[in-house]
Amino acid sequence: MLQIFKNRNFLWLFLANFTSQLGSVVGMTAFMLYLLRKFSNQPSYATITELMYTLPMLFLFFLVGVFADRLNRKKIAMYCDYISAFLSVVLLITIMQDWIFLSFCILFLRSGVSKFFQPAQSSLLQGILTEDQYATSAGLNQLVSSLFMLFGGAIGTIVFWKMGVEAAIIIDTISFILSGLLIQVAKLSKEITNPNGHHTLKDLKFTLVLKDFKEGIVYILNHSLLRSLLSGFFLFGVINGGFSVMPSFILKYKLAPDNYEELLIYIGVAFGTGVLLGSIVGSMLAKKMQLQNMIIIGLIISGLCVIAGGFSTSPLAYILWQFIIGLILPIVNIGIGGWFPKIVEKRMMGRVQGWIQPIILLSQSITLGLIALFYPAILKIEWLHAIVGLSLSIVGVYYFVVLPKYMKTDMSNAAVETERSVSQ
């Protein structure tokens, strides 16, 4: 794992991802607590905040992948950070002036800008790593995520308690600026930043965007293994939407209404500790176990644990279930993260990545919208956990049925291509 850091470009991109996530986690945690405290009788505000994070992708999904494949990937990632930093300053002003609905609009814009970051960064990482390093990189990225789950929410909560939401947004801003500078330091060749040749924004006419977007769809549909893997991502959005609000809601409205803010820190620590340990275990399993088996087993078990956690009768029991779920989910993420770059061509990574976010965020937005409408009047917190848990397990069973069949097809096609190349 340490060997990969000898690649300086990977080091800069890794640290950039670290600092960018730091700002997002701290700022969003504090803003969520700010809304729950100031508008405690309107839980829908917390859900609307999450919607402002997911909805922009529904308007930009046909652009993000094309941009990552046609424009300079390094500049896209770098400018995403700098623009997000500027919008964070504007968000700070709206919060200080108590312009809550304008704050939602700024969150919407900042989220829209950030959606261009992930396809560009993932494509850059694919370009600077060897195939053997993909699983290691996925493990390290999962490790970073676990650290933020462990400390990010706690830091955001403590900053909110001690200094207010404004200080958290300032941390947000600084983190985005630092991330942009780290990306700027990386020295990347044209083959990595512009694998499809040099283009500018002026070159991206509507017909070209439409052509590239269509090419991405055709590539996915003609790739049976990739198609089956992505088709399960729709339910991942249901999972993300539920997870974004479930811990706050079950503590505030069921298990611990008087001290839910403090207990959210413990949940963050428990879940983050689980993910941290799971990241280490997952990285080791990736060397000894087939990646698709890691994905399938992890999804089914974690789904059952989410359902069980929703019926907890005490905060301690819920925190324990969060630890167990955190321990299992990294195994799934490392499996997907290590496998995905192996089955996608480098020139197509941006367009394929550009489809992942809209697939997930469409269902995530629908889920959050339904929660805002039906919770708590109709939808109870236990059933919200049951829906999310079932979604996880259903994806696991689906992958168990379809992935082995398409893997054989994919290997057969690869053998035919190899034989054809040799004969030529």
UniProtKB/TrEMBL annotation:
Record-annotated membrane-spanning stretches: 12-36, 51-69, 138-161, 229-251, 263-286, 293-312, 318-340, 352-377, 383-402
CDD domains: MFS_MefA_like
Protein topology in the membrane: Multi-pass membrane protein
Coiled coil location: none
Designated name of the protein: Putative MFS-type transporter YkuC
Gene: ykuC
InterPro entries the record matches: MFS, MFS_dom, MFS_trans_sf
An example Gene Ontology molecular-function term: transmembrane transporter activity
Start and end residues of each Major facilitator superfamily (MFS) profile domain: 220-424
Compartment annotation: Cell membrane
Matching Gene3D superfamilies: MFS general substrate transporter like domains
GO CC annotation: plasma membrane
Keywords: Cell membrane, Membrane, Transmembrane, Transmembrane helix, Transport
